[in-house]
Please model this.
Amino acid sequence: MTVEAENIVKRFGTFPALNGVSLAARPGEFLALLGPSGSGKTTLLRILAGLDFPDAGVVRFDGDDMSDRPARERGVGFVFQHYALFRHMTVAANIAFGLTVKRRRDRPSGAAIKARVEELLKLVQLPDIGGRYPAQLSGGQRQRVALARALAVEPRVLLLDEPFGALDAKVRKDLRRWLRAIHDETGVTSIFVTHDQEEALDLADRVVVMNRGKIEQFDTPDVVYNRPATAFVCDFLGNASKFDCRLAGGTVELGGLKLPNTAPPIADGPGIAFVRPHEFSLGKSGEPGLPVTLRRLAHAGALAALEFEGAGGQLIEVTLDRAPDGLAPGAALVLVPTTVRAYPA
Model:
């Protein structure tokens, strides 16, 4: 099913939570709404779900206007960050809840509901816990049950609000792989909110990067990471060092070097250049480049992580496949950027 939001505006008092947001999810697509706290991503998700309503704009499912319809009429499955399971109900009863409260003429038989619950417990790889209560489950198990409950009503679209936010890093990583597998198996158009960039880039078909109630960029994970459209996206996605620079004729003038700009073309003038840790090479003191002093060297798995002090005491992080032999803190070197993305200052 296609999900469209067109020119969505939402204010809370004088605060513009969403300011003319438009996007479209393709049938069976997995979208991530990514951004810092206060960027408007959860507000947009709630509006898509029918849990909140826009001040202006239109929400469409398969071309049908849903803007004024409540959640119960939209056929949406919603997974909350903190599970929202009923503590007094068993796992099976929690999963069946959305089916048991349907109107009598739409409600499946008891046998059909039981079969659906058993099917979903197998799907989320928890076939033997139907008789337990939420308090008897781990956080990861509760989140799987919450997803099963959302899928029980065979939603037209699945919406997830920070689904792994309450879990530790190891469980998050395991569950996000599992969630992607579930999505691929069910084919339900899915949209999830996260502030975790690694999660968004790993899971989503396309990523919506939001900031201050607007969309900064909407594209595939590869494009938003490697070809960020704005300085905000470049700064938000991944770690990068920032430098004042000058832009002239499509090149970046930085530390006596003239380097090609890999960001979208912009007018000549002062700019801000971004260089990621793996986009530096080392040179000898006195050679063209950015003069630095090594402050720390550590081995992070198969990589070498180096911290340099640059002009004005700036901390510059560099990642290399292998540190040169004999390199020690206090060494004076130069850094030469291999890839630069520069934007207007």
Q: What stands out?
A: The first strand starts at residue 3 and ends at 12. The radius of gyration is 25 Å. The CA atoms of residues 99 and 273 lie 54 Å apart. Residues 169-186 form the longest helix (18 residues).
